[in-house]
């Protein structure tokens, strides 16, 4: 009998569940975690991709990614949650290890490491917190010289 | 005496004002458009950057970018607004033309074009809609072959 969880804890659990569903390649779970269209339009940006809008476009992208991903694991760090009434913004760093389908009889394709940062917006619904917007982007440079990072990028 | 604007129109105006403030290099206007800390923690991801959290870190990044940007113009396309109660998610494509400070006596540094997609989350406050979260990321590939885009990217 644990104490009631706070909104922040519930949102963080939903955020974790979202990545675990992708790790498992569980399309139904991913679809269930994205906000139902009746609550408003969803949007999704995968690293380097243009914006995808609406459940149809977003879920098709996950089906496509899952078909091309044999193995994927997310090590989430720097998870920050900000809740305001029925909406929450989560930012986190996705330390990704992934591999495509095997080639030439190998058990698994080559593994690739990726550093991605994400902003995930959640909405509270009667069925729990659901993903309203996901935006992931590659971290292109880590430099101590902030001046270099800043040039021309907004 | 125009008819009252809808929430969607108000949010789109706030989104436009945000980019115009950056175009003008108007730091005070940019600071005014970011959500006040008392309403919750803000977050910001510039293209290729890690996550910045809190007004201090976010506003310092704008000061730094403005100091390194002599000229910047945003041509916004594909602007989509989703409003739910006191929160709104805007996605748009930022077609950016920018230039750094002049070198070697030139009037302006070399101009660079950039294709960036953004997810901007706004909150309704007594002072209007304010930016709660901004996430911009480079569009790295535009390919008709969706399979190629999908590999390993989530």
TrEMBL record, chains A, B:
Gene3D superfamilies: 3.10.450.50. Residues 11-139 form the SnoaL-like domain. PANTHER family: NUCLEAR TRANSPORT FACTOR 2 (NTF2) FAMILY PROTEIN. This is SnoaL-like domain-containing protein. It comes from Streptomyces rubrolavendulae. The lineage of its organism: Bacteria, Bacillati, Actinomycetota, Actinomycetes, Kitasatosporales.
């Amino acid at each position: 009998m644990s104490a009631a969880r706070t909104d922040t804890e519930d949102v963080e659990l939903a955020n974790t569940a979202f990545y675990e569903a992708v790790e498992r390649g569980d399309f139904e779970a991913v679809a269930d975690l994205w906000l139902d269209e009746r609550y408003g339009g969803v949007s999704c940006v995968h690293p380097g991709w243009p914006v995808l809008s609406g459940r149809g476009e977003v879920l098709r992208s996950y089906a496509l990614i899952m078909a091309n991903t044999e193995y994927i694991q997310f090590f989430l760090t720097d998870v920050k949650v900000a809740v305001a009434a029925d909406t929450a913004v989560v930012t986190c760093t996705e330390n990704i290890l992934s591999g495509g389908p095997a080639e030439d009889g190998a058990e698994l394709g080559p593994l690739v490491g990726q550093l991605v940062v994400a902003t995930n917006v959640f909405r509270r619904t009667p069925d729990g917190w659901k993903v309203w917007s996901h935006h992931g982007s590659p971290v292109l440079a880590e430099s101590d010289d902030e001046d270099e990072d800043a040039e021309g990028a907004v």
